[in-house]
Amino acid sequence: MIIHILDDAEQDLIDGFNFYDSQESGLGDYFIDSLFSDIDSLHLYSGIHPIKFSYHRMLSQRFPFAIYYEIEENTVKIWAVLDCRQNPVSTLKRLENLELR
């Protein structure tokens, strides 16, 4: 299985890194390591996660983030990595905007 992190999801990861690193030095690195560990698990577990807002949603093990992805043939496309603490309406709008592209 090939995992492809799309540009918007990559920016989400950068934003999360910046937020956590501003809270405490080194926490951003732990955030990135944790999220990439979750993403790497998709090699084995892609497709088992529930579908929310038209995408599979995997919850991170260590941070309050959700990874939204879809599977096309032999590729997992990660569309967004979003903070679960935000308003669900903003999550829905963000994911709907991705579908329009």
Quick synopsis:
The chain has 101 residues and is of the alpha+beta class. The protein is 47% helix and 28% strand.
Describe, in plain words, how this protein is organized in 3D.
- This protein is 47% helix and 28% strand.
- It is globular and about 40 Å long.
- It contains 4 helices and 5 strands, in the order E-H-H-H-E-E-E-E-H.
- The protein has one domain (2-99): YaeB-like fold.
- The model has no long low-confidence stretch (mean pLDDT 95).
- 22% of the residues are buried.
- It has 101 residues and is α+β, with helices and mostly antiparallel strands.
CATH architecture heading = 2-Layer Sandwich
Q: Rg from C-alpha positions?
A: 13 Å
Q: What is the count of structural domains?
A: 1
Uncertain segments: none
Going by CATH, the homologous superfamily would be RelE-like
Q: Can you give the mean pLDDT?
A: 95
Main beta sheet: 5 strands, mixed
Strand content: 25-35%
Give, in spatial order, the strands making up the sheet with the most strands: 1-5-4-3-2
* CATH class placement: Alpha Beta
